[in-house]
Known about the structure:
By secondary structure, the protein is of the alpha+beta class. The chain has two domains: 46-113, Antifreeze-like/N-acetylneuraminic acid synthase C-terminal domain (Type Iii Antifreeze Protein Isoform Hplc 12); 115-212. Helix content is 27%, strand content 24%. Residues 49-111 form the SAF domain. Keywords: Signal.
Amino acid sequence: MTLTPRPLPRLRRLRRALLARRRGLAAVCAGLAVLVAVQAQASPPPERVQVLVAAHDLGGGVPLRAADLATVPFPPERVPAGALTRAAAAVGRTAVGPVREGEPITDARLLASGLLDRHPGAVAVPVRIGDRDAVSLLHVGDHVDVLAADPQAREAAVTVASRAPVVALPAARSVDAGLQSGALVVLAVPRDVAARLAGLGVSQFLSVVLVR
């Protein structure tokens, strides 16, 4: 009687070969995982630039304090031109107009320091004058009367500020040029007059008269 060879030795050899291949693949995968981890640790973090932003909504015409400012990391390609990076460069300076929370503080958004040195007790207030052409005739150092008129009424315009010195004539930002009429003039006035100008600027048409 002829005996057929048992297949067990062949199956065992096949199983050993499969196990060896699995161990090899596992070793390769482990090596790749280690390599990826090492590369991730070796790669430097994305570059960031600390940019000065408004810590909360800011009004125009009021000197900035350290509590009004914060720093936020920005990708270099998103840093606006003229952005400030240190609070010391902004504290004590005055915003030309309102600044939203989180908005970067740029040199164009602030008045130059020292504008009020010749006007003790005054604050710098940005006033939007309805007639842009009239503003183009003004120069820093001029004195103006500010008149307010209700566009819905027939009453004569009233004087709301007298002999207010012009301390700055900010250039219009391109983003604002098509949204708002008129032009900004920064005046040095007492605090109560500044509050009145800010309130009337919302509902009244403001104009200026050059005086000596």
